[in-house]
Amino acid sequence: MNKISQxxxxxxxxxxxVEGFWYAGRLEESNFLSRxxxxxxxxxxxxxxxxxxxxxxxxxxxxYDWEDDWIFNDDxxxxxxxxxxxxxxxxxxxxxxxxxxxxxxxxxxxxIFNDNLTDDNFEIVEKTRISNKPIFVGRIKINGKxxxxxxxxxxxxxxxADYVSQxxxxxxxxxxxxxxxxxxxxxxxxxxxxxxxxxxRKEEYDKNWDLPKLMKETTKLLKLTPDDIPNEAKAASSIxxxxxxxxxxxxxxxxxxxxYGSGHGKDGKFKGLQPRHAKLAVGAASTLAxxxxxxxxxxx
Length: 300
Description:
Residues 212-294 form the Abortive infection protein-like C-terminal domain. With 300 residues, the protein is mainly alpha-helical.
């Protein structure tokens, strides 16, 4: 059963028309629709033509006697009642960089989509980038998402690398629909952060180190091991306990990734983890990465 209501869908379509946005962007209608629908094998509403591709050409190009909003009410595409995933795909295609180049239009449409989708607990978010242009995906809203995204943005500011930004975006956007991918990327985030610290300090690391070893050597490099905390420091025992727990966090994320993440093949009986487990791994990895990177920045 669909969770995005007809009311939400109709509101979005109404806003699009009121604001004067053309759904197909800079593409011809048939080219836009062909990105999601097989027009050649879709029934025609005009018996002079064998398929939808033909009658769309006839009534939108040759004669131009269909209204501009015809697509929103055509039962072949069924946008008011189709699966939630298909509806979200349609919206994401509207703001795909191949379809729409104007950043202000993309931003406005994204706002319209999310302002309405939030009532049904859905959202459209950036998944990755191609040629520095955002690619979007629809998903169920993630509780606590703001905290996770804030951490991700902090890491992006420090590392400032396109690859890292894409990995963080994918990690965040995969939590709900593909938690195993998020878990795998959480491990990679820690690895990337540690290796970046070694590189910036012009120190060597062994490419064969596993994650716990890499983490251990990074904390040594940053003088964050329990032995680096003098006993006379205030709350020394508590600080040492926290630092000692860092290795446990890393080892745990590594083990979860090995068992459930994206880096290993699974048999047919495999049952993956739930989004809440991915949120835990992503949150822990992000917090740890920020701590290491900020310490590195302070101790430069």
